Amino acid sequence: MTPNTELGWGEHFDAAWQAIGCPVAHETPGRVSRVDRGWSTVMRSADDRSPLRVRNIGADVAVGDWVIVDDEAERVAYVLERKSAFVRRASYEGDRAEADVLAANIDVVVLVHALTAPPNQRRLERELVLAFDSGAQPVIALTKSDAAIDIEGTVRELAAVAAGVEVHVASGLTGDGVDTFRAMASSGRTLAFLGASGVGKSTLVNSLLGREEMATSSVRENDQRGRHTTVATQLLEVPGGGWLIDTPGFRAVSLWLSGRGIERAFRDVFDLMDDCRFRDCKHDQEPGCAVRAAVDNGTLDGARFTSLERLVAEEAALEAEQERRERLSDRRRGGRPAPDDSDRE
Length: 345
Hints:
Blueprint: H1 11-19, E1 30-36, E2 39-43, E3 52-55, E4 66-69, E5 76-79, E6 85-89, E7 99-104, E8 108-114, H2 121-134, E9 137-143, H3 151-159, E10 167-169, H4 178-184, E11 190-195, H5 201-209, E12 234-237, E13 243-246, H6 261-265, H7 267-273, H8 290-297, H9 302-332
Parallel strand pairs: 8-9, 8-11, 9-10, 11-13
Antiparallel strand pairs: 1-2, 1-4, 2-3, 4-5, 6-7, 12-13
């Protein structure tokens, strides 16, 4: 039985399934629509009225994953290789060097900011690093256009650090601009919406779905911050085709190990670095530094370059922490190799 293409199944997952021998335990591969404290809700079709609820024992599962459930329909037996994943560092105390997968197998990452709040370039830069590293296409949604005062100014400030990423203005209340995102979700594609609490993400999602799926609340007048109205990450069907993953709002944007995310999010700065006189230029006091020259003449915002330096240092510290943990783990195993999760059944 062929997995349901309306759920987002495609060539990548077909190849991943074949690579492990096309196992079929309980029916066909299904897609995780929700994860709750060690339990996964797994859909087998777009109109599945009785999705499976199974354990995640020993499995790294996120909303959007394609999985195969065991014969008894009790646990996840296999997780198919992801084509993309939005990953940040776990933000809870005691587990700082663990990955937190917010959404898997997404086609478009929608980074949501509110037009009614001061533009936050530094947060957007961090989000773009994660979005580029996810393997999905990032786009930016500026919400609450119905209540905004200076739309053009906010668009201009955020577009200045958007690395060529599309910026779209929308209002979940009036519906203006929502069709742009509906078109992105056509043909079984999956959108993931991410942003801080209070930016209008849930209102935008409700408008996109055409129903009050997500609870909404007002923001504080003094700082425009809202409460966490989305309490769990969910995979939801978009009318007319496609899927979206809504995630709880989060204040901290903590980096995970980057591929080329930093380089792509700061493409303008890295282009300048190519013009420095010395290949090992530290961009401080060296003669012929194109970066310092750009900062001095005002063509590059000094705060943007400082932000890049902080992100590079943050990633280096994370890599060092990961290496330290691996060394400790090796000592505990007495030099034996770590077990291969692919051998688990």
